[in-house]
Amino acid sequence: MMHDSKSRSRRHFLAATTAGLGIAGITRHGKAAEGASTQAGVPDPDIARGEVRSTNGELSSDGQRFVEATREIPIAAHCDVLVCGGGPAGIAAALAAARAGATVRLIELAGCLGGVWTAGLLTKILDSNNKTGIMAELLKLFRERGSSVAEQTGGTVYDPEIAKLVLEELLVDAGVKIMLHTRVAGAVVNSQNRLSVVVTESKSGRQAWTAERFIDCTGDGDLAAQAGCQFDLGIGQDCQCQPMSMLALLTGVDPESIGEFIRESGSGAKRNLLELMEQSGIHPSYRAPTLRHLHSGIYSIMTNHEYGVSAFDNEAISNATIASRREIHQIVSGLRKIGGPWKNIAVVATAEQIGVREGRRIRGRYQISSADLASGLRHEQAVCRATFPIDVHALSMAGDKEIDQSFKKDGLKPYDIPYPSLVAADVDGLLLAGRCISGDFIAHSSYRVTGNAVATGEAAGVAAARSIAMGVLPHELQWNELSRRDG
């Protein structure tokens, strides 16, 4: 179902209050208003001493609304390319743009780079082996600096801590300015329909950032939604989305004693693990439990599904996170009771963030469709080729019965991801990368995996930097001409 984000009324309000750089109260110079900082992270000394009582607004007369006061927000910095989201798409976008000569700033909500790779403890990279460029570079580094398992899997099974370090080193060395613990809180589109300002919230308070180009790598399309872009969500009138999953790291088991249950040992490992669980009275919410050996005595496990959770409903995500963490500990406790090789199994860590398969699919200049997958789309502006199968996880505990599976009958042919699907349709100067690019429900179930996220991120980063150098907007850029020129 298509949505128009927070409705056009928000954009109309912002347009009506446009002043200077595009929003009332955002300034490059002058003292900030009450409650704001005089410069990024430095509080007004009077406020710090408690001598000025500040107010951010007031309750409405009926007590049902909070009316936020107008306030000035300093422009914290300007750069060529501002990347929002530091997951697999974001790190590739930032790295590619910086290497192409742009000044780049990366904004990330978590306390580390990598997104689902690190904060989400995914530990497996899908649809990556046919990729070149930054994806191939990362696999090489994960393989060389990882364990024997990383070596044997070509870096596709990796240690999240190694990944954190590698990603930070690469981006710092490329000159990317990294802002962790920072959330996108707003966006401003100017009177020329061009994204001009991003507003964030962090320990430094509310800040504003300007750039020549912006790239939404938030996964859920948060930046594009704030800018008023239309988007699609889930499937059907109820916008049902694929379930979320919590992953965890485990220890206390000898890999040689449980080889038949480790995913990389063969295709029957998931079935073997499920049978073991059910025979022991353990009934996981995900019916294809996946156990991976990472290194020494450390494993990752994915055996959780949280159904019916919206990617932008904070309370629902909070409840799903709590429920999923509880289930993981219950499952591990049940495995421990089996005894034998499982008697000392224990949880090392659960993921900081629950794994989100599906959020907003932002409307782009091209929408990848299930028909494109069926035909094996070849597009003159292809940025990469996707090969991962159509993977629609059950939308409820009832299983796959509620999903029309006819789209799978002819299988999947490798298909191209076109550059225009990375270009926002409604706002100029905004590129998309990762799982929030433009596509339908079925196509998204294939291209959403992180190998494709890196490839689309790299393309968006190159396009952002090169469009600045060429004096054109991203939607005016022809990727095939750029590729020939770069080649």
From TrEMBL:
<dbReference type="InterPro" id="IPR039650">
    <property type="entry name" value="HdrA-like"/>
</dbReference>
<dbReference type="GO" id="GO:0046872">
    <property type="term" value="F:metal ion binding"/>
</dbReference>
<feature type="region of interest" description="Disordered">
    <location>
        <begin position="34"/>
        <end position="63"/>
    </location>
</feature>
<feature type="compositionally biased region" description="Polar residues">
    <location>
        <begin position="53"/>
        <end position="63"/>
    </location>
</feature>
<keyword id="KW-0479">Metal-binding</keyword>
<dbReference type="InterPro" id="IPR006311">
    <property type="entry name" value="TAT_signal"/>
</dbReference>
<dbReference type="InterPro" id="IPR036188">
    <property type="entry name" value="FAD/NAD-bd_sf"/>
</dbReference>
<dbReference type="GO" id="GO:0016491">
    <property type="term" value="F:oxidoreductase activity"/>
</dbReference>
<dbReference type="Pfam" id="PF12831">
    <property type="entry name" value="FAD_oxidored"/>
</dbReference>
<keyword id="KW-0004">4Fe-4S</keyword>
<dbReference type="GO" id="GO:0051539">
    <property type="term" value="F:4 iron, 4 sulfur cluster binding"/>
</dbReference>
<keyword id="KW-0411">Iron-sulfur</keyword>
<keyword id="KW-0408">Iron</keyword>
<keyword id="KW-0560">Oxidoreductase</keyword>
<protein>
    <submittedName>
        <fullName>Ribulose-1,5-biphosphate synthetase</fullName>
    </submittedName>
</protein>
